[in-house]
C-alpha cells in the first residue's frame, strides 16, 4: 500500500490525506505502528479532521520526520491558509524516540478522549499496544525508518511536494523560493539541534554540591561553630580552614577535568557541509545547507558532502563513502532506481547526511533534514545525559554511610552527655563541642585526595599501555566490566585484508607472508608450479592496485607493509601477496594492459586484456638475503626467518601470515606494538596516536583515489599508449577475476598441473567443496581464469558495448582466499577475559559466517552452535533442546523480530556473536545486557557506534581508526586500536577498586580508636586519651601519606583470575569490610593505644581505679601521692600529656601494621612483596611526624605533647605482629574459599579454566 493512504476495513485504498480539504474519508482503520485510529464514521469536514489531528500531534510535542514506516502519513494540511508539511509522526515520547525529556501539555488520555468525542476516533495508547505485543517500551527498536527508496518519482513528488520532470529529471524546476521559505519556517533549519549549554559558573558550583564535598563543608562549618563556642581551642579553627582548602582544591580539579571533556555536538558539526547546490525556481543556485527543506532538489558532485538525507533521482557513477556513518569500508555505488530492499540503510538510491561523494554526480530530492536525518538520529541518541559511573555511585553510597554514622554517633553522644555530665550551660557547651568532635572525627578528610590520586595514577599507567581515559572515574567502571561488546574489524582483527590460501591443482596451499617471514610452510604455494605461476600472473596483471611512487632523493626505504598503495582492500592484499614472491612492477611491464572492465557490484567480475611481450618469460624470484633499494621501484625485503605455518588442512592462518610484531619491522603499521616513549609521557603517546590516525586517513585517501576521474583517466591514457606500442603483437592474454561462481560460469576448462582439462561435473563438485571449506573459515574468495588467444585487430578497438573480445570458454586457474586476520594478541586476551569471568560478545556488521569464523579463531566461540550440534547428531536444528545450546550466533535481520521473550530465552547464554547489526540494534543489545545486570563495555570507531558508546557503562573508542564523534561519545580511547589494551584497562580498573577499598578500610580502622577516648571520658570519667590536636595530626598527617600510598599498590597476581565484582552486592564499603575495620582492627588498635596509655600512668603509680575517680587530671585535681612523691594538679596534667602522646604513638604504630596488612586483600603480603616505593616512603614520613610530635620542643608547645617513657614504645610491638598475623590467616581462608568457588564454576561450565 502506498504511504499516505488510508486502508479501509475491506483493505482497499479509498482516500489520501494529501490536501485533505478536497478528499472524503470513509469508514476504515488508519494503520500506524504506534498510532491506531479505528472504527470512525465518515467525516465530510476534512479540514476539521486534519486540524484536530494536527493539534493532537502538536500537543504531544511531535517531531514528525524521524520515521517513515507509517502506513498513514498526514502530509500537507491547509490550516488557516498556510501549508503545513510533514506532520505525520506520533509524539516522540510515545513512539519512544523523545530526547527532550519534557512531558506533553496534555495527557494521551485527554487528547484521545477529545478526538473520540468529536469524531468517534478510538485512539490506542502506543505504549500499551507495544507492551501487549510482548515488547518492552525501553527496548523498542529505534531503527532509521523510510519508505522513499521504494517509491516512484510520482510518489516522491506527490508526498514531498517536489517539482519534478518525470521524463527528464534534470529539467525539473524544483521548489520556488516562497514555497521553500514556508517549509523552512515550518520544519526549521537543516541542522542538528545543539544540546542545552550549562553556564560555566553553574558547572563550577555543581562541584560544591557533590555529596562528599557537602560532607566536608558541613564538617568545616561545625568546626567553626565549635570554635565560636570555645575560642580558646584554636584547633577547631585550623581544622575548618584545612577542610575548606581541601574542598576548594578538589572542586577546582573536578571542574577542570569536566571542562576538558565536552564537544560531542561540535564533532558532528564538522561532518556537515556549509553550502550546497540546489535547483529552485528552475535554476541551479548555491544555498546554505542549513536552509535546505524537504522537497528541495540538490545536485551532488564528486568531493561534496551530502547536505541532507537524499533520495537520488538521477545518478551518474556516483560512489559514496559511508564509512564514517555506517562503518562500510569501501565506497558504495549509488543509483536512482526504485529499490526492492526493505532496509533503507542498504538501499542504493539513498545518500545520507554528512557522508562524502567520492566520485560521480547525482541529483536527489531531500527527504529528511536536521535532527530527522540518520545522522541527526544518531546524534540525538549519542547526546544523552552523561551516566553516573559505578565509582561515583560507590563513593556517594560511602558518603551517605559516613554522614549517617557521624550524625547518629554525635546525637547519641550528646544525649548521653546530658545525663552523665549534667545540664548546666557550661556543661552543655562542652558537651556540644565534644559532640562536634565526634562528628568530625568520623569524616575521612583525606579520602577525596586519595580517590583523585588513585584515579590519576591509574590513568597515567593506562596511558603508558595505550589507553587514554577521558574521565578519571571511568577507569573503575572498566574494572567492573562483566561484558564486552566488541566490534570485529580493526579491534579483534587488523583491518588489513591479507591473502592466506590459494587453491590450484585440487590442493589448498598456504600463501607466504607479505614480509617473507615464513621459514617453512605446510603445503606452501610454490611459484615454480605451472598452475601457481599462472594464478599469480592473473592476480598481478588483473589488478588495478598500484604502489604510490616514492620520489627520488627520498631517504626513506620503507618495507612492503609500509608502502602506500592506491587501491581497494582486496586488490591491495593481492598486490602485496604478488610482491612478496616477485617484482610485480617489472612483471606487469611484460604484460601491458590494453583494455579493462573494472569490477562493479552488479557484474561481480573484473576483466583485462594484455599483450604478451615475452610469452616464455619466467618469474624473477626475489633473492632471499638481498635488501633492495625501494626508492627507484617497488621492490621489498626478501625472505627472512620467522615462524612456521600450520597445516593447510586446518585452514586457520597462523600469526606469521600477518603478525607484524613477529616481523621485527619498525613500521608504524605495527598497531599491536607499543607506542610508549621511554619516559612514559602520555602526551607523546597521544601525539603518536594522532600521527598514526593521520597515516590511517592517508591510507584511506589512497584507497579512494582509484575511484576518482583523474585516476581513471590516467589508466585510460596508459592503456591507449600500450595499445599503440604493442599493436603489432598478436599474442594476447585475457585475465578474468571475480566472484568464484561468476568466474566458473565463463569457463569450459580448468588448469591442472599446467595443462588444460575439461571442466566436468567432477571438477565442479571439487570446486564447490573447496568454496564451502574456505567460506567456513570466514575467508573472502576470488576466482581466477585466463584465456590466451591470438588477435590481430587494433587493441584500441576493444569496446565494452560491442563486446568484441572473447568472454567465454575460459580456463579456470584457481582460487585465492583473503581475510582480515585476527590480531595475534587477541586470542590470549580473550582467554584472559574468560579467565577473569568477563563475557566477550562480537557485535559486527559483517557476514555471520565470517564473524563466526573469526570468533572461533580467537577463542571467543569455544562451544558448538545449535547448527553444529544438529549436524553432529544428524538431527534437525529444531530438535536441539534450547537449554543445551550455550552459544548464540544471530543476524540483525533475526534481531529485528525478537520480543522480550526471545531475549529472555537467549540472554544468559555463555557466548555471543551478533552479525549484520545496525547502530540501533547495537544499542538494543547493550540495553538488554545491562537490563540483565551486566556492566557493559562497548568498542566502536564510527559515527554509527556513538549511541551504543554513550549507552554503555564504559564506551571504548578506537584512537587511530575512530571518528571524532566516536571518540567524543566514548569514555576511554584505545590509542593503538588494540583489544589487548582493553584487558590492561580492566586490570587497572580492578586495581583501582581494590586499592580504594584497601585505603578506605585502612582509614576507617583508626576512627574507633579516635572516638572511644571521648566516649570513655564522657561516660566514665576516664581522662581523654587523645587530644583534639593529636586527632588532627593523625587525620591530616600520619594517615594521609599511607592512605595515598595504597593507590600506588600494584595488582595482586590473581586479580585477573577472579570474577568481576557484582555491582549490586560487592560494594566499596560492605558490611564485611565495616565489621573488619571497626570491630576487629578498631578494637585491636584501641587496645594497643590504651595499653600504652595505661602503661604511662602505671609508671607513676596510678591504678585503673584512680583514673576513673574523676578527682584527678583536672585543673583543680586533688594531689596524688606515690612512693613518697606528691603529684600536684599541674604534675598530673603533665603525666596525662605523656600518656596521650603514648596513645598517639600506639595508634600510629598499629596503623603502620595495618598498612602492611592492607597491601593485599587475598594474597599473602609476603607473596606480594614490598615493591611499592611510595608506601616505603610513606613509612618514613609517618615515622618523621611521630618523631617531631614526640621529641620536638615546638610540638610540645603547639600540640601539648610530652616525651613518654621510652619503654612505652615497646608496647605496640606485639599488637603490630598480631594485626599482620590475624589478617594473613583471614586471607588464607579467603584464598581457599575462592579456589573452591572457582572450581565449582568451572565444573558447572560457568567460566573457563
TrEMBL record:
Gene3D superfamilies named in the record: Calcium-transporting ATPase, cytoplasmic domain N (3.40.1110.10), Calcium-transporting ATPase, cytoplasmic transduction domain A (2.70.150.10), Calcium-transporting ATPase, transmembrane domain (1.20.1110.10)
GO cellular component terms attached to this protein's record: plasma membrane
GO biological process, alphabetically ordered: intracellular potassium ion homeostasis; intracellular sodium ion homeostasis; potassium ion import across plasma membrane; proton transmembrane transport; sodium ion export across plasma membrane
Domain Cation-transporting P-type ATPase N-terminal residue range list: 147-228
UniProt keyword Transferase, yes or no: no
InterPro entries for this protein: ATPase_P-typ_cation-transptr_C, ATPase_P-typ_cation-transptr_N, ATPase_P-typ_cyto_dom_N, ATPase_P-typ_P_site, ATPase_P-typ_TM_dom_sf, ATPase_P-typ_transduc_dom_A_sf, ATPase_P-type_domA, Cation_transp_ATPase_P-type
Protein name: P-type ATPase
Amino acid at each position: 500500500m502506498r504511504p499516505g493512504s488510508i486502508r479501509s476495513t475491506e483493505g482497499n485504498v479509498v482516500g489520501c490525506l494529501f490536501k485533505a480539504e478536497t478528499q472524503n474519508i470513509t469508514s476504515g482503520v488508519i494503520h500506524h505502528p504506534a498510532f491506531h485510529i479505528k472504527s470512525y464514521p465518515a467525516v465530510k469536514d476534512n479540514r476539521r479532521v486534519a486540524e484536530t489531528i494536527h493539534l493532537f500531534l502538536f500537543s504531544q510535542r511531535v517531531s514528525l520526520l524521524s520515521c517513515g514506516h507509517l502506513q498513514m502519513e498526514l502530509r500537507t494540511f491547509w490550516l488557516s491558509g498556510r501549508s503545513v508539511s510533514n506532520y505525520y509522526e506520533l509524539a516522540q515520547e510515545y513512539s519512544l524516540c523523545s530526547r527532550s525529556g519534557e512531558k506533553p501539555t496534555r495527557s494521551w488520555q485527554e487528547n484521545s478522549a477529545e478526538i473520540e468525542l468529536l469524531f468517534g476516533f478510538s485512539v490506542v495508547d502506543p505504549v500499551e499496544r507495544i507492551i501487549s505485543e510482548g515488547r518492552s517500551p525501553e527496548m523498542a527498536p529505534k531503527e532509521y525508518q523510510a519508505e522513499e527508496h521504494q517509491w516512484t518519482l510520482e510518489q516522491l513528488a506527490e508526498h514531498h511536494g517536489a517539482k519534478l520532470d518525470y521524463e527528464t529529471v534534470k529539467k525539473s524546476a524544483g521548489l520556488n523560493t516562497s514555497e521553500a521559505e514556508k517549509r523552512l519556517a515550518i520544519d526549521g533549519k537543516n541542522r542538528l539541534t545543539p544540546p542545552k549549554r550549562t553556564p560555566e559558573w553553574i558547572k563550577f558550583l555543581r562541584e560544591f554540591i557533590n555529596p562528599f564535598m557537602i560532607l566536608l563543608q558541613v564538617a568545616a562549618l561545625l568546626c567553626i561553630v565549635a570554635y565560636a563556642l570555645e575560642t580558646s581551642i584554636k584547633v577547631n579553627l585550623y581544622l575548618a580552614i584545612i577542610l575548606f582548602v581541601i574542598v576548594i582544591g578538589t572542586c577546582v580539579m573536578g571542574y577542570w577535568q569536566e571542562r576538558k571533556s565536552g564537544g560531542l555536538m561540535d564533532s558532528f558539526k564538522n561532518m556537515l557541509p556549509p553550502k550546497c547546490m540546489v535547483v529552485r525556481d528552475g535554476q541551479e543556485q548555491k544555498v546554505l545547507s542549513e536552509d535546505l527543506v524537504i522537497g528541495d532538489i540538490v545536485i551532488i558532485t564528486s568531493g561534496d558532502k551530502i547536505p541532507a538525507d537524499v533520495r537520488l533521482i538521477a545518478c551518474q557513477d556516483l560512489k559514496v563513502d559511508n564509512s564514517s556513518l555506517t562503518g562500510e569500508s569501501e565506497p558504495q555505488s549509488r543509483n536512482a532506481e526504485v529499490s526492492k530492499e526493505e532496509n533503507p540503510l542498504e538501499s542504493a538510491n539513498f545518500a545520507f547526511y554528512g557522508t562524502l561523494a567520492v566520485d560521480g554526480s547525482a541529483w536527489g530530492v531531500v527527504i529528511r533534514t536536521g535532527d530527522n536525518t540518520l545522522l541527526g538520529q544518531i546524534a540525538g541518541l549519542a547526546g544523552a545525559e552523561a551516566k553516573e559511573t559505578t565509582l561515583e555511585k560507590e563513593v556517594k553510597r560511602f558518603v551517605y554511610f559516613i554522614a549517617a554514622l557521624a550524625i547518629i554517633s554525635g546525637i547519641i553522644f550528646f544525649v548521653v552527655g546530658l545525663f552523665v555530665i549534667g545540664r548546666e550551660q557550661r556543661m552543655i557547651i562542652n558537651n556540644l563541642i565534644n559532640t562536634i568532635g565526634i562528628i568530625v572525627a568520623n569524616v575521612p578528610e583525606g579520602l577525596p585526595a586519595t580517590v583523585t590520586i588513585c584515579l590519576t595514577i591509574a590513568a597515567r599507567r593506562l596511558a603508558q599501555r595505550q589507553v587514554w581515559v577521558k574521565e578519571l572515574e571511568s577507569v573503575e567502571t572498566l574494572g567492573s566490566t562483566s561484558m564486552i561488546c566488541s566490534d570485529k574489524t580493526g579491534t579483534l582483527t587488523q583491518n588489513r585484508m591479507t591473502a592466506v590460501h590459494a587453491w590450484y591443482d585440487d590442493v589448498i596451499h598456504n600463501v607466504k607472508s607479505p614480509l617473507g617471514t615464513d621459514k617453512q610452510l605446510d603445503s606452501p604455494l610454490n611459484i615454480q608450479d605451472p598452475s601457481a605461476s599462472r594464478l599469480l600472473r592473473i592476480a598481478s596483471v588483473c589488478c588495478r592496485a598500484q604502489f604510490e611512487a616514492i620520489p627520488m632523493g627520498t631517504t626513506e626505504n620503507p618495507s612492503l607493509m609500509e608502502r602506500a598503495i592506491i587501491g581497494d582492500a582486496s586488490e591491495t592484499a593481492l598486490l602485496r601477496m604478488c610482491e612478496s614472491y616477485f617484482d610485480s612492477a617489472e612483471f606487469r611491464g611484460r604484460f601491458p594492459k590494453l583494455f579493462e572492465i573494472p569490477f562493479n557490484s552488479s557484474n561481480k567480475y573484473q576483466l583485462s586484456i594484455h599483450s604478451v611481450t615475452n610469452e616464455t618469460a619466467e618469474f624473477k624470484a626475489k633473492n632471499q638475503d638481498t635488501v633492495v633499494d625501494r626508492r627507484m621501484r617497488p621492490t621489498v625485503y626478501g625472505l627472512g626467518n620467522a615462524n612456521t605455518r600450520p597445516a593447510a588442512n586446518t585452514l586457520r592462518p597462523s600469526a606469521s601470515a600477518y603478525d607484524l610484531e613477529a616481523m621485527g619491522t619498525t613500521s608504524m603499521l605495527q598497531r599491536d606494538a607499543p607506542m610508549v616513549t621511554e619516559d612514559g609521557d602520555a602526551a607523546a603517546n597521544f601525539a603518536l596516536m594522532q600521527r598514526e590516525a593521520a597515516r590511517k586517513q592517508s591510507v584511506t585517501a589512497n584507497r579512494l583515489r582509484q575511484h576518482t576521474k583523474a585516476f581513471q583517466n590516467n589508466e585510460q591514457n596508459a592503456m591507449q599508449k600500450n595499445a599503440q606500442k604493442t599493436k603489432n603483437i598478436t599474442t594476447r592474454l585475457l585475465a578474468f577475476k571475480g566472484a568464484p561462481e561468476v568466474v566458473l560460469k565463463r569457463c569450459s576448462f580448468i588448469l591442472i598441473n599446467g595443462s588444460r582439462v575439461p571442466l566436468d561435473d567432477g571438477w565442479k563438485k571439487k570446486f564447490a567443496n573447496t568454496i564451502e571449506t574456505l567460506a567456513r573459515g570466514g575467508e573472502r574468495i576470488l576466482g581466477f581464469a585466463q584465456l590466451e588467444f591470438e588477435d590481430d585487430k587494433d587493441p584500441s578497438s576493444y569496446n565494452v558495448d560491442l563486446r568484441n573480445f572473447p568472454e567465454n570458454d575460459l580456463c579456470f586457474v584457481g582460487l585465492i582466499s583473503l581475510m582480515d586476520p585476527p590480531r595475534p594478541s587477541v586470542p590470549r586476551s580473550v582467554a584472559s577475559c574468560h579467565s577473569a569471568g568477563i563475557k566477550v560478545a562480537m557485535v559486527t556488521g559483517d557476514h555471520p559466517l565470517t564473524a563466526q569464523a573469526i570468533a572461533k579463531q580467537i577463542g571467543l566461540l569455544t562451544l558448538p552452535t545449535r547448527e553444529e550440534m544438529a549436524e553432529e547428531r544428524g538431527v534437525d536444528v529444531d530438535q536441539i533442546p534450547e537449554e543445551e545450546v550455550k552459544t548464540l550466533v544471530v543476524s540483525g535481520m533475526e534481531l529485528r523480530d525478537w520480543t522480550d521473550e526471545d531475549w529472555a530465552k537467549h540472554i544468559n547464554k555463555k557466548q555471543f556473536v551478533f552479525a549484520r547489526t545496525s547502530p540501533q540494534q547495537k544499542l538494543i543489545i547493550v540495553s538488554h545486557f545491562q537490563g540483565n545486570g551486566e556492566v557493559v563495555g562497548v568498542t566502536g570507531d564510527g559515527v554509527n557506534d556513538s549511541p551504543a558508546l554513550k549507552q554503555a557503562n564504559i564506551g571504548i573508542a578506537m584512537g587511530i581508526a575512530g571518528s571524532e564523534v566516536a571518540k567524543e561519545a566514548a569514555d576511554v580511547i584505545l590509542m593503538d586500536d588494540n583489544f589487548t589494551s582493553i584487558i590492561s584497562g580492566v586490570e587497572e580498573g580492578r586495581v583501582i577498586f581494590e586499592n580504594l577499598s584497601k585505603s578506605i578500610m585502612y582509614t576507617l580502622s583508626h576512627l574507633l580508636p579516635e572516638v572511644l577516648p571521648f566516649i570513655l571520658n564522657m561516660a566514665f570519667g576516664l581522662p581523654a586519651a587523645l587530644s583534639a590536636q593529636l586527632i588532627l595530626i593523625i587525620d591530616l598527617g600520619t594517615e594521609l601519606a599511607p592512605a595515598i600510598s595504597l593507590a600506588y599498590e600494584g595488582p595482586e597476581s590473581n586479580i585477573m583470575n577472579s570474577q568481576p565484582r557484582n555491582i549490586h552486592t560487592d560494594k566499596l564499603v560492605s558490611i564485611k569490610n565495616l565489621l573488619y575495620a571497626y570491630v576487629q582492627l578498631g578494637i585491636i588498635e584501641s587496645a594497643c593505644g590504651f595499653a600504652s596509655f595505661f602503661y604511662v600512668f602505671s609508671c607513676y603509680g596510678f591504678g585503673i581505679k584512680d583514673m576513673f575517680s574523676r578527682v584527678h587530671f583536672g585543673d583543680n585535681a586533688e594531689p596524688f601521692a606515690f612512693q613518697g612523691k606528691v603529684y600536684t594538679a599541674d604534675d598530673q596534667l603533665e603525666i596525662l600529656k605523656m600518656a596521650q602522646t603514648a596513645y598517639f604513638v600506639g595508634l600510629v604504630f598499629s596503623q603502620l601494621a595495618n598498612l602492611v596488612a592492607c597491601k593485599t586483600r587475598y594474597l599473602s603480603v609476603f607473596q606480594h612483596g614490598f615493591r611499592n616505593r611510595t608506601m616505603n616512603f610513606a613509612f618514613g614520613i609517618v615515622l618523621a611526624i611521630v618523631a617531631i610530635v614526640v621529641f620536638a620542643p615546638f610540638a610540645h608547645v603547639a600540640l601539648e605533647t610530652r616525651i613518654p617513657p621510652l619503654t612505652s614504645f615497646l608496647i605496640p610491638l606485639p599488637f603490630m605482629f598480631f594485626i599482620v598475623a590475624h589478617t594473613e590467616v583471614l586471607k588464607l581462608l579467603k584464598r581457599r574459599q575462592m579456589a573452591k568457588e572457582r572450581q565449582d564454576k568451572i565444573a558447572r561450565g560457568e567460566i573457563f579454566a
